[in-house]
Amino acid sequence: MRKLIAGNWKMHGSQEWLDKVKSFEKLLPSRKRSHIEILICPPFPYISGLAENAKGTEIAIGGQNCHANATGAHTGEVSAEMLVDCGAQYVIVGHSERRAGGESDADVKAKAAAAARGGLVPIICVGETLSQREAGDAQSVVSSQIAGSVPSDVDKYVVAYEPVWAIGTGKVAEISDIEDMHNHIRKAVGKSVRILYGGSVKPGNAKDILKTENVDGALIGGASLNMEDFSEIAKSA
Ligand code: PEP
After folding, report:
1. Which structural domain, as residue segments, surrounds residue 41?
2. What CATH number is given to the structural domain containing 32?
3. Digit-coded pLDDT (tens) for 81-111
4. Total domains in the fold of the chain
5. Which of 41, 162, 169 for a ligand 1 pocket mutation test, highest count of atoms within 8 Å of Cβ?
6. 20 to 30 A Cα–Cα from 32, which one of 23, 44, 150, 230?
7. How many A from CA of 221 to the centre of ligand 1?
8. Does residue 222 line the site of ligand 1, with CB under 6 A?
């Protein structure tokens, strides 16, 4: 299984950032990365432009969210079909920053199902808060998020395990904790599903994280905004 190195630009970017795929390609040409897959998930307005610039580079482009419906009166929303139309192949659903805004497991499941129906691979995010970990509930929280967020009839999906307390904080889970959780998730999702780790992945810690058993890639926020850092992480896969 090729490791997936996925960047989540969150709400960062501008037209000038459309050149970043070319910079990445120069730093790490596609011929040197047949064992990994690169994905960039920019804000919606930049998907088409990045997908255009990514032609011939083997860099995939994805969205950061989608609506559960294909079309309709949903002001400000974007459907999976629209993302595909703009050149996306993946979409992140259920990121903790959206769950914190009220997105439930049922919402995430509906979005993941819509993504698959629309032709995208959903990246379904799960992860415990610090208080849940400290209470010893990390695995049960993640099990329940998987049970509630993964549609039973979708077989092509990715799970991103992102402990909430490690996102954007510089705190990284211990390798042994990552290993335990990924082994736990593996039992729930089976062999064919890629399980990414996310939470303050940087060039300095990526190698150890990416060689951990059942870590099939990484979902990277802050360090994906800088192509030198992003390519260094990819090189360690
Ligand atoms: C994320 O937003 O999914 C993430 C992991 O962010 P960071 O790498 O900045 O912690």
Report:
1. 3-236
2. 3.20.20.70
3. 999 999 999 999 999 999 999 999 999 999 9
4. 1
5. 162
6. 44
7. 3
8. yes
